[in-house]
Amino acid sequence: MGDGLQKAGHFFDSIAEFITPALEDEQLVADQLKEYWLFSGSLQAVYKQYESDQHTLEVHQQMLADKKYEKLKLEQGGQTNHFLLKIFGSIDSDDVREMKLQSLENRVEALTEDTEEQTAKVSGFVTKVQQENLRFETTKAEDLRASLKSYVGLQIRMNRKCLNTWTNIKTCLESIP
After folding, report:
1. What pLDDT digit, counting tens, does each position of 60-81 carry?
2. 3-state helix, strand, coil in the chain (%, to 5)
């Protein structure tokens, strides 16, 4: 009876020795999968940056359109349609009107440059993101397949080892009178 229990104890010890390396191997596979989880977080940050840049571009475009409209109204000789101006009939002299027109032209030029810079920034950002996304997509399937294959292989080895060990333990326990 002692021999059977001692042999069974050795097999239990072999299971205990196998658990630590198996957990380390599982941790390696889990780390590979965590990379893709972290990638999703960085992808969210990229999209937030894109949305911010796109919003800034739209604000610049709207400001440019507003200033162009204001300039057009001034060039046509009309005052901006303010309620008080209609009531009191304030009319600017030609010098004041020319100064306002020059100021608006300068502002339109500055806004045009800002809008072009922002458009280039957004376009460059989108191009870089598309390149990175393409690179990621080409490696993603291979990496995930390799991780899954590694995990399945680990599980098969571990289960075979455990089955073999439990079979030996069963044999040892059955040999006890």
Report:
1. 899 989 988 888 887 776 555 5
2. 90, 0, 10
